[in-house]
Write a structure and sequence with these properties.
With about 110 residues, the protein is mainly alpha-helical. About 10% of the residues are buried. It has a domain of about 60 residues. It starts with 5 loop residues before the first helix and ends with a helix. Keywords: Membrane, Transmembrane, Transmembrane helix. This is CBO0543 family protein. It comes from Ectobacillus funiculus. InterPro entries: CBO0543-like (IPR048147).
């Protein structure tokens, strides 16, 4: 039995984790800009479920992704959903703090 080549695992992980997830976070933040908490959670799951399904399929049917012994799709789903919500919380705080300062500057002019 051949071992998977580590360079392929590193190659596929970087585009997924280094590019796709941050871009998805930006799109998620724009999509939930005016949503309530329930809408944010539902939309976070709407992003996390397809990403989890794809990752699980890649792990089971290819040698591109290999889960560690204790990792499974449930951890992927919960970590993605949590990531989207935490980033949205941080962006909400930034929007509130910068929006207040921005309107005060515009009112003076």
């Amino acid at each position: 039995m051949k071992k998977p080549l580590k360079k392929h695992v590193i190659y596929i992980k970087f585009p997924l984790n280094g590019v796709f997830i941050p871009i998805s976070c930006v799109y998620y933040n724009q999509l939930t800009k005016n949503s309530n908490i329930f809408g944010m959670i539902v939309k976070a799951m709407g992003f996390s479920i397809p990403m989890t399904i794809v990752e699980n399929w890649l792990e089971q049917n290819t040698r591109l992704i290999k889960y560690k012994k204790s990792w499974n799709w449930k951890y992927t789903f919960s970590s993605l959903t949590t990531t989207f919500l935490i980033v949205r919380l941080i962006m909400g705080i930034i929007r509130k703090s910068t929006h207040t300062g921005y309107t005060a500057i515009n009112k003076e002019q």
